[in-house]
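To assess whether ligand presence alters the predicted conformation, the chain was also submitted together with NAP. Input:
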Amino acid sequence: MDATMQRPLKLLLLGGTSESSRFAKDAARMPGVATLLSLAGRTNQAAPSPVPVRVGGFGGIDGLENYLQRENVDVVVDATHPFAAQISSNAIAACAKANVPLIAIERPPWERRDRDTWSEHATAEDAIAALPEAPTTVFSALGRSAIPLLCARPQHHYVIRIVDPIVPPPELSDTVIISARGPFQAEDDIALFLEYRIARVLAKNAGGDAAYSKIEAARQLQLPVHMVERPTIAKRLAVRTSDDALAWITHLQASRTKRGV
Ligand code: NAP
């Protein structure tokens, strides 16, 4: 069959990351591919998108399975954050049930270098519990969901960087909220850490470039980093970059054309 006569490949892109933005930009230019970007809707102002966007959860595994069938989705690209384990696990299960191919973009985690002082922790709770008893100044890049967890160690002075502004809970009255969206630069984070006299850093091992600046800044200033390790996600077809995922989609397109689908 002539590729121009084919029904467009309906691609559901699970996003919310720099990889999904990059993928959406390139996929928008791919002939015969109709991409829909799906966002959880956690931030007030999503970045502009070159492809149509839907916002909000699907309603668990069954909700996503129903959505894939109802909307005749041909392929799912999971470009969510490495710590968004719930949606990634749901996508694995729903795609298997609906018999829809799934590919994930998994950026490699950051690796400790010689001058780094990291302690590694399975959860954000563990990373916070490992803070010293004596009051100190802590930079938290653990995200909004970790703010209630910080209340377990209210003696510290926190500087919290999150996308949308928030009023800190009363237990954390001595807290500075910095509302900002990456990418960030190491020299800016060094200046920030010096300005606030940061003594420790709470971070998730997100990987990628956009949020690496705080790790670089902690290295330069020789600050200890409490690093939360990634959650485990079941095995799935995965590539490292948005370009690799696009190459796989091109291949999928070619095989559909060959089979006359
Ligand atoms: P999560 O815990 O894995 O997901 C919780 C629920 O939110 C999911 O079960 C799903 O609801 C809904 N959801 C998540 N991502 C979605 C998407 N792209 N489209 C539609 N529904 C989605 O996720 P999270 O950690 O809260 O992260 C939410 C979003 O923020 C993700 O898309 C992720 O890429 C982005 N993000 C997360 C982090 C982080 O550190 N976790 C950092 C940067 C960006 P239903 O079960 O109802 O379908």
